[in-house]
Amino acid sequence: MKAAVVDRVGGIPRYQDFRDPEVGEGEVLVTVEAVAVENVDKAIVAGTHYTSGPFQAALPAIPCFDGIGRLPDGTLVGFGGVTPPYGTLAQYAAVPATHAAPIPEGIEPPVAAALSSAISAMCMRTAGGLVEGETVLIQGATGVAGRLAVKVARLLGAGRIVATGRDDDALRELTDLGVDAVINTAVDDADLIEAYREHAGDGYDVVVDYLWGRPTELLVRALTPESFAMPKPTRLVQIGESAGASLQLSADALRTSGLEIFGASRNLATGMAAAYQQIVDWVRSGELVIDVVTMPLSRIEEAWTRTDLRGKRLVIVPD
Ligand SMILES: NC(=O)c1ccc[n+]([C@@H]2O[C@H](COP(=O)([O-])OP(=O)(O)OC[C@H]3O[C@@H](n4cnc5c(N)ncnc54)[C@H](OP(=O)(O)O)[C@@H]3O)[C@@H](O)[C@H]2O)c1
């Protein structure tokens, strides 16, 4: 079969022949229709993700671990569960039958491939407990996931949405999406702390944090009172680390800022099904638009290195 193949740590996938997957007991053969390429996929290839080990050990290998495809009977499914060296950037994948679930009608494969970032944005409700009228701060809102989070926050009835990014043009585009205020994080520390305070209004109720690192460290400093005070709670949902894998958190900040920190997977087991259904309903009704850019598998080298996608998810489709 044809596949995108990486031959060394940090290599760029190349379009070439690869041995067909063998379908084992309890597995099904999926003909791949669409695969979203996300930061996590690039980090696994680069060897910087905590789950990189099995991929790196199996090189040469095919990147990406989930996708949308068709079963032999024509059913469109979302699937995962490939085992390196096999991945989903290929014509075919053999996966456990238990790891293939039907995609609801009315959703095209490229959009279905990108659904997961919208579903994960629902963590502002499932993990952060967002209720209508509350103020949401989205850290890293100019990215693919952040823009979807802006749309999801609006659909969930957020009262005010404040968004951060590093590029003024991209931040202006967010205003068109319904953001009430924007903060450029590419300023010096004191100015950024001031900006977080200035735009907080009555306080941020929920923070959806795709950044961590320096911007979130400065946000925490902005939330920390400088005299004895009874701060409002701010529920920060940690979902990404585009600005850094760690930050310094002082004891007094946690004691006094009202900050409550949750992982995005909080309440996932009980909230996932409803979150999924809500996103599917919004996509089918046209209320939620997921912007994707599709490119054929044969152009994977060019696709993998694109930097001009401006908040749209790259989705690889068959030739
Ligand atoms: N757990 C989940 O379910 C889930 C789902 C989706 C995403 N994520 C994670 O969330 C993060 C964002 O994903 P994405 O797909 O939206 O990525 P993306 O499209 O690359 O967007 C990254 C965002 O972070 C900003 N950024 C990047 N580096 C930065 C830095 N050094 N300092 C400050 N801001 C920086 C970008 O600003 P510019 O626009 O200026 O580049 C953009 O707003 C990633 O860590 C990803 O793995 C997690």
Automatic annotation (TrEMBL):
Gene3D superfamilies in UniProt: Medium-chain alcohol dehydrogenases, catalytic domain, NAD(P)-binding Rossmann-like Domain
Any Pfam family matching the protein: ADH_zinc_N
UniProt-listed InterPro entries: ADH-like_C, ER, GroES-like_sf, NAD(P)-bd_dom_sf, Zn-ADH-like_protein
Domain Enoyl reductase (ER) intervals: 11-315
Gene Ontology MF terms: oxidoreductase activity
Name of the protein this chain belongs to: Zinc-binding alcohol dehydrogenase family protein
